[in-house]
Every structure is written in C-alpha cells, then in structure tokens.
Design goal:
This is GTP-binding protein. Keywords: GTP-binding, Nucleotide-binding. InterPro entries: P-loop_NTPase, Small_GTP-bd, Small_GTPase_ARF, Small_GTPase_ARF/SAR. The chain is of the alpha/beta class and 321 residues long. It is built from 11 helices and 9 strands. It has 3 domains: 96 residues, Beta-Lactamase (2-Layer Sandwich); 149 residues, P-loop containing nucleotide triphosphate hydrolases (Rossmann fold, 3-Layer(aba) Sandwich), CATH 3.40.50; 59 residues, Methane Monooxygenase Hydroxylase, Chain G, domain 1 (Up-down Bundle), CATH 1.20.58. The strands form 2 sheets. It has a 6-stranded mixed beta sheet, with helices on both faces. Helix 6 links the parallel strand 7 and strand 8. The protein starts with a helix and ends with a helix.
C-alpha cells in the first residue's frame, strides 16, 4: 500500500505537470483526497472526503475556499516569516463544513419511535400515544446543514425496494428499534438493505423504549445486531441533547466544537434557560433567551420552531408592556 507521503508526491507531480489538472481526486484507502492548485504561487490545497461524498458537488466549495484564502492571505504567504496558524485557518474550514449536507436515513418498522425521535431532535412536542405515520410519507428535517430524511411505513417485504432507493447516498443510517427481541429480528433486513444501498454509510441501532420492562439490554442488542447501539427513551425531552450527541458520534463530529452542532447545543441551553426564567417569573430574562432561540432557529433553517419562539417572544413583550 502506498504511504500518504507517496500519495502526496504523486498528487503534486500530477497537479503541477505540464498538462496537469487544476482540480482532481485521488482515492486512498477509505477516503477521497481531492485537490485544487494555484499555479502562480505554487500552492496545493488538499481536502479529505468520504467515499460516499460527491466530488462534483464539492468543486464549488474548493474554488470558493481558494478564492477567499488568496484574497485574505495572498500577499502574506509571499513573506518567508508568515506562519499559517489554525486560528487563522479555522474560519475558512468552518465555512466549508457548514456547506456540507449530511444525509441521515432513519429507518425501522412501524411504531418503534422514528417520528418521536425526529420530534425530539427538533424540540417539538412529543406525542404521548403512538400515531402511525401515513404509509409512504417522507419528512425532510434540517438541523443546521444536517438533513434527516424520514420515510415511515410498516416495513413489509414488498416495500423493501423503496427503502433501498431511500437509503441510497446516505452518510449514515439509523435503525430504530423498540428494544424487543421480535422487533430486532425483523429489523435485521434493514441492515442488509443498507449495506447494498449505502455501502459507505455509518450504521447504528437506536434502541428506543429502554424504559419498558421487556427491553433487551444494550449489550445484548449489539451482539445480536452486530452494530453499535445506543440506548434511548425517545419520548423524554431530556434526551434531546443525548440524541444530538449520538448524531455527532456517528458522523465523527465533536459535538462541543463542530460548527454544525454548536448552534443546536446553544439553542438547547437557551431553551432551558428561558423556561427556568419563566417559571421564576423573570419575564424579561425569558424574553431575551427565547428571542435568541428564535434567531438561532432562523440561522439553522428550523422554520417551524422559529415561528413557535417568535410567538413566545412577542407574547412576553406584550406582557412586559
């Protein structure tokens, strides 16, 4: 196998050759190394993508990165004393990360809590009783630039081809179960479909309803499903932060540092802060917190929650007059 140094040398040689390409890609083990050059300054920019990531759709981001980088540092990099630190580079990297749209397919049999989990993440009201989702309904939910696609139907064998099309191109597949043995056995088919439809996707099992007496322990579920499993009680709003961190873990993101997740975690903190202030009769403090929640929701594209907290903010404003 070629070492990363050899790969770098090959890319550099190819990129700066007489007939070299300005933009290109190179597969190395489980990743794509993509590059763009600036010939006039002998600069080579390298990016690491997953095998499931679309190179063509990433090209505009590479070009934008190069343009902004040169506009900011173009003159400085000619200085032999110039040092490019992570503090200087991080804003550019964050900008690219924010443009990524990770597709997370949430699958499972009817009644296991797929819709409840989505509502948990979105901070929407969680139903006390199960209301079956209409067969074939697809919901698209945007959290920052993370898209969750939910296709909730009973899961009969004749619909397997729909799940294959649905999972195709996913960065991650979450298999929802209700933590019972019967459900786990029936749900194994989704893992088989995922390996065909999304061979490079991360797979994980969400063991929902862990609060019920017949719930199988998480260690047994992992042994049975041969996949990483996470315990969950989806109808408890307190688990919202936990679910967000599961997504971060699955996508190899640091939930405390990632520009994708920072606004979501901050929003959760402000929601709790505002609610506590409201319970203590501190209306102005609650208004300020809810207004910040509203602004974050607008920033990350969560329109339904933005409207909810806009209404709460306006109501508190009228009460304070």
């Amino acid at each position: 196998a070629k070492s990363i140094i050899n790969v770098y040398s090959n890319i550099k040689k190819e990129a700066f050759s007489k007939f070299g390409k300005e933009i290109g890609t190179y597969e190395y083990f489980g990743v794509k190394i993509v590059f763009i050059i600036e010939g006039s300054q002998n600069l080579l920019f390298l990016f690491i993508l997953g095998l499931a990531d679309d190179f063509e759709s990433f090209k505009p981001q590479m070009k934008r990165f190069k343009k902004e980088f040169l506009n900011t540092f173009g003159e400085n990099i000619k200085d032999s004393n110039f040092i490019l630190t992570s503090e200087l580079l991080d804003p550019f990297i964050d900008s690219i990360q924010r443009s990524f749209k990770a597709k997370i397919a949430v699958v499972g049999l009817s009644g296991v809590g797929k819709t409840t989990i989505i509502q948990l993440i979105k901070a929407e009201d969680i139903p006390i009783y199960h209301v079956p989702t209409i067969t074939g309904k697809v919901a698209t939910i945007k959290l920052e630039n993370i898209f969750l696609f939910l296709w909730d139907f009973a899961g009969q064998d004749q619909f397997d081809y729909l799940y294959e099309n649905f999972m195709k191109g996913s960065d991650a597949v979450l298999l929802m179960t209700d933590s019972t043995l019967e459900n786990l056995e029936k749900s194994k088919k989704f893992l088989k479909i995922a390996t065909i439809a999304a061979p490079h996707a991360r797979l994980a099992v969400i063991a929902n309803k862990q609060d019920l007496p017949d719930a199988i322990k998480i260690e047994e579920i992992e042994n049975l499903m041969k996949q990483k499993a996470y315990p969950m009680v989806g109808n408890d709003p307190k688990n919202r932060d936990k679910m967000i961190r599961i997504l971060a873990d699955l996508l190899d993101m640091n939930p405390d540092l990632s520009p994708l997740l920072k606004p979501i975690l901050k929003r959760e903190f402000l929601i709790n802060k505002g609610q506590n202030a409201l319970e203590q009769g501190k209306l102005e403090e609650a208004r300020e917190a809810f207004e910040k929640v509203y602004n974050i929701c607008l920033e990350i594209g969560d329109e339904s929650l933005a409207i909810e907290y806009q209404n709460k903010t306006e109501k508190l404003k009228s009460m304070l007059k």
